[in-house]
Amino acid sequence: MDAVLFGATTLRLGGTAMRLQSPHLIAEREHQGRSPQPLQIVCSASGELDLNLPFFRQPIPRALLTTEKGASRWQGATAFDHCWCAGGEAIDWPQAFAHLQASGVQTLAVLGGGQLFASLLEIGAIDELWLTLCPLLLGSAAPSLYPEGNPCSGKLILLNVLPVGNEVYLHYRLSY
Ligand SMILES: NC(=O)c1ccc[n+]([C@@H]2O[C@H](COP(=O)([O-])OP(=O)(O)OC[C@H]3O[C@@H](n4cnc5c(N)ncnc54)[C@H](OP(=O)(O)O)[C@@H]3O)[C@@H](O)[C@H]2O)c1
């Protein structure tokens, strides 16, 4: 992927970006003429992010996708390589995608969490889905993949199943 996108709550709770660690995968990207790490994009309408998070010390390219309100917090700051403003109070997705395209982002992985994923699913912007089935029983405290509750209008078509150890990787295509 050229870039990965994740919600502000995922970053606030995890503290770091999910960067590539495998030397083999990093070498493969470099061989393809890509940057060693995909651009790590945080989506935050509020722009309220703590500069003390380890994320800001990781050796990765960083971008912020935010609103006019959120961008005002980061004026003149150098913590992000890009600060994209799309919309006044809420993210305007067509405008957001135009910023990404203009910066050369053609392939984008949405890493979650559920709120971000749901807003993209609802506008039909997700074309493939990778689900990992893990043997962890978390009960009702588990964060939801799709918390908004509206039934997804897309149809999930199974493309591949890959068992690895105790986990199963499920790869779907979404047809709208
Ligand atoms: N198992 C997994 O693979 C996985 C992956 C990712 C996350 N998670 C878990 O999921 C949980 C977090 O998920 P979540 O659903 O609570 O939050 P989330 O989607 O990570 O983040 C929500 C925040 O992101 C921004 N945001 C998301 N969608 C937006 C939109 N359409 N427009 C504007 N801003 C938007 C807002 O930031 P502001 O508040 O700054 O405006 C919002 O409050 C965590 O527990 C995390 O560990 C699990």
Task: Give structural notes.
Pathway: Cofactor biosynthesis; riboflavin biosynthesis. This is Tlr1469 protein. There is one protein chain. The protein has 176 residues and is of the alpha/beta class. It folds into two domains: 1-112, Dihydrofolate Reductase, subunit A; 113-176, Dihydrofolate Reductase, subunit A. It contains five helices and eight strands. The strands form two sheets. A five-stranded parallel β-sheet has the order 4-3-2-1-5. Strands 6-8-7 form a three-stranded antiparallel β-sheet, with no helix packed on it. A hairpin with a 2-residue loop joins β7 and β8 (167-175). The model has no long low-confidence stretch (mean pLDDT 94). NADP nicotinamide-adenine-dinucleotide phosphate (NAP) binds next to α1, β5 and α5.
Summarize the model shown.
Helix content is 23%, strand content 28%. It is an alpha/beta fold and 176 residues long.
Structure characteristics:
176 residues, alpha/beta, Dihydrofolate Reductase, subunit A, 2 domains, five-stranded parallel sheet, three-stranded antiparallel sheet, 5 helices, 8 strands, globular, binds NADP nicotinamide-adenine-dinucleotide phosphate, DHFR-like_dom_sf, NADP, Riboflavin_Biosynth_HTPR, Tlr1469 protein, RibDG_C
In order across it, which strands form the biggest sheet? Answer: 4-3-2-1-5
Q: Stretches where pLDDT falls below 50 for ≥5 residues? A: none
The pLDDT mean sits at: 94
Q: Fraction of residues in helices?
A: 10-25%
Q: Domains counted in the coordinates: how many?
A: 2
Question: What name does CATH use for the topology of the largest domain?
Answer: Dihydrofolate Reductase, subunit A
Report the strand count.
8
- Overall form: globular
Total number of helices: 5
Supply the CATH architecture of the largest domain.
3-Layer(aba) Sandwich
Q: What is the chain-wise order of helices and strands?
A: EHHEEHEHEHEEE
CATH superfamily of the largest domain, by name, is Dihydrofolate Reductase, subunit A
Strand content: 25-35%
Determine and state the CATH class of the largest domain: Alpha Beta
How far from one another are the termini? Answer: 23 Å
